[in-house]
Structures are given as C-alpha cells and as structure tokens.
Amino acid sequence: MAEVRKFKVYRGDKNGGQLTEYNVQVEPGMVVLDGIHQIQRTQAADLACRWNCKAAKCGSCSAEVNGKPRLLCKTRLDDFDPAEIITVRPVKTFPLIRDLVCDVSWNFEVNKKIPPLTPKKTADWVMHQEDMDRVQEFRKCIECFLCQNVCHVLRNHDLKDRFYGPRFMVRIACLEMHPMDGLDRTKLLKDEAGLGFCNITKCCTEVCPEEIHITDNAIIPLKERVADRHYDPLRAFWRKIMGADHPCTCADGG
User: Fold this and answer.
1) Can you list the positions of beta strands (E) in the chain?
2) Which of 15, 72, 204, 208 can pair with 32 through a Cys bridge, CB separation 3.0 to 4.6 Å?
3) Is the pTM of this model over 0.85?
4) What residue ranges define each of the domains in the chain, with the CATH number in brackets?
5) pLDDT tens track for 136-172
6) Cβ contacts of residue 186 below 8 Å, gap of 6+?
C-alpha cells in the first residue's frame, strides 16, 4: 500500500546549498534511489543524481543516507522507521559538482600511477586455485568509492597528495598477490601511496557494498609485506651481501 515518506535532499553546488524537504509517495519494496527518481519526476526535474545500473554493480549512486555512506539503489526504505526522515547528502570526501553529484576524477588519476600486472620472466602460467582465490575477492570492487569517502586520511585530513586510499590498496593487493606477477610495488606503497597513513580503523570495510575485507585481506598483508621488505634488518643485511635484486627465500616470494 502506498504511503508518503518525508525526504530531505541536499541541493546546491560548490558555492553552497541546503537540505530541501520533499513529501514522496512510496510503495513497498522501494529503495532510496526510487524516492529520488520520484522527486525528479514530480517535484524537481533539475535534481542532479548519478546512477546507472540500479543493481548495485556500477557504483554510480554513492551518497550518504541518514549520515551513513551507502549505494542509493541498495538502501531499502523498509530499513528505516516509517516516521524517520530520509536525509540524502552527497559524499563528503570529493568536490561537489551539484546536488548529489561529486567529482571523483581524482581516483582515476591515482589509478594511472599503479603499475599493471607484470608477469614473471620465468612464469610458466601454472596457477593453483588457492592462489587465485586469494585475489578473486579484490576483483569484486565496483569503484563506488564509499571506502574512499569514509577514510579519515582522505576525508578529515585531505591528504590526497600523499595517500592513495583503501580502494587502491585493494587494487595493489590484487596485483601484488597475483601468483604470476613479478613486480615489487612495496616502495610505491611505502612512499607515494602512503600506506603508513592507514591506522586500520576498518571503517572502509564496514561500508563496502561488496563486503570485501579491505583491512584484513588487503591493507594488513600489504603493511606486513612493506615491513618485511623495507624494515626487516635481516633482509637488509641479506640484500647488502647478495645485492638488492637477489631473490629472497621468504614465504611470500618477495
């Protein structure tokens, strides 16, 4: 049965804005994105909102609903008390373009800085299933950038010039842990990517719509790898004797 729900939606641009209230006719089973579309159809045709698949796979409709970063197409109105106002704001980490649309192009510039898969020179391309299972989780990322939005290093301290953010730690982990990759990206992680800025609060994991274990399975193993290769005194001594490019006999193959 249809009912009326109260929405408050941010309207504005980089120069400022405010929450605007709308009464929306909703049906059972609707998601927040349906409510936004209803507002566009009946009350505010100029309301800007980015979306594409409405299946929680394109990552386009990222926003903050009642203070929590979510995908609008995956957030059901039934999850909220009927008397609760649905407040929709744009994500806060990236520059606002208009209304609910932000400029996330910084992320794509970061992506260009990461060296791609580089096969080992001696690779025989025989891969074990457990090795592929390790990296398969990371490939589920839909680049909604909700993890980038909640990361305190980017959101509160705006260190975009020194930290790549959790999404790209996931991408680097996918490459570093690939059984056929032969490139060492630990210096990139230690220096330009700023892995040391992450203090593993796990807020990125909590908001991931694909339920990727960003902290436990990507960031912490990368931190261990960087520590082993750049701060372990025994490794440093070994490299000094054998040369920086001499293969190591450690478990991770590094």
Assistant:
1) 3-13, 16-26, 62-65, 68-71, 86-89, 96-98, 101-102
2) 72
3) yes
4) 3-102 (3.10.20.30), 105-242 (1.10.1060.10)
5) 999 999 999 999 999 999 999 999 999 999 999 999 9
6) 176, 225, 226, 229, 230, 254
